[in-house]
Specification:
By secondary structure, the chain is an all-alpha fold. The protein has two helices and no strands.
């Protein structure tokens, strides 16, 4: 019974899992490389978040 469900809806389940992983990793990547890096940027964090928020 479970295998029939997975066989028919396997792509949907994979798409959901990939979407969840992407939704978790994008903020972590932005936090790591944009907001909490050690370099002195010309833009403030609020300016960066406004700029990046317009694309996401």
């Amino acid at each position: 019974m479970i295998f029939k469900f997975l066989r028919g809806n396997g792509r949907v389940i994979v798409a959901i899992i990939v979407s969840i992983i992407i939704c978790i990793t994008i903020p972590l990547i932005l936090n790591r490389f944009v907001f909490s890096n050690g370099s002195k940027p010309n833009l403030t964090n609020s300016e960066w978040s406004t700029f990046l928020g317009s694309y996401i």
